[in-house]
């Protein structure tokens, strides 16, 4: 690993419709996560995307993890467990 390379993981949590996917797309600088208004919630599954940024000090490899809304359709526990599995890889 280069001395100037930094790895960062951002996990987006929150209530349904509060802007997680939009925030993720802004961080990535790309439209990777579906975002928009839906009473049912747009994001149904955990999705992980990676981007690389060069800042004044470091090259940053950033993983952004989008998640379904907390308390959404009772899926929170299941998705939290999936997240733990993803982080183990
Ligand atoms: N005004 C404003 N609207 C926003 C902002 N972020 C997101 N939105 C809007 O809010 C709505 C929901 O945004 P999403 O990014 O899909 O929110 P989410 O938390 O991923 O939603 P779900 O996956 O459906 O639970 C969309 O219509 C966005 O355009 C913000 O910072 N300001
Ligand atoms: Mg979403």
From TrEMBL:
Pfam (any one): AIG1
Keywords: GTP-binding, Nucleotide-binding
Entry coiled-coil feature ranges: none
Top-rank taxon: Eukaryota
Residue stretches making up the AIG1-type G domain: 8-78
One GO MF term: GTP binding
The family this protein is said to belong to: Belongs to the TRAFAC class TrmE-Era-EngA-EngB-Septin-like GTPase superfamily. AIG1/Toc34/Toc159-like paraseptin GTPase family. IAN subfamily.
Protein name: AIG1-type G domain-containing protein
Source organism of the structure: Dreissena polymorpha
Taxonomy of the source species: Eukaryota, Metazoa, Spiralia, Lophotrochozoa, Mollusca
């Amino acid at each position: 690993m280069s001395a100037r390379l930094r790895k960062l993981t951002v996990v987006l949590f929150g209530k349904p419709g509060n802007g997680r996917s939009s925030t993720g797309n802004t961080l990535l600088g790309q439209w990777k996560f579906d975002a928009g208004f839906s009473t049912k919630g747009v994001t149904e599954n955990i999705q992980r995307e990676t981007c690389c940024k060069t800042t004044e000090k470091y090259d940053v490899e950033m993983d952004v993890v989008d998640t379904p809304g907390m308390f959404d359709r009772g899926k929170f526990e299941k998705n939290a467990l999936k997240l733990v599995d993803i982080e183990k890889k």
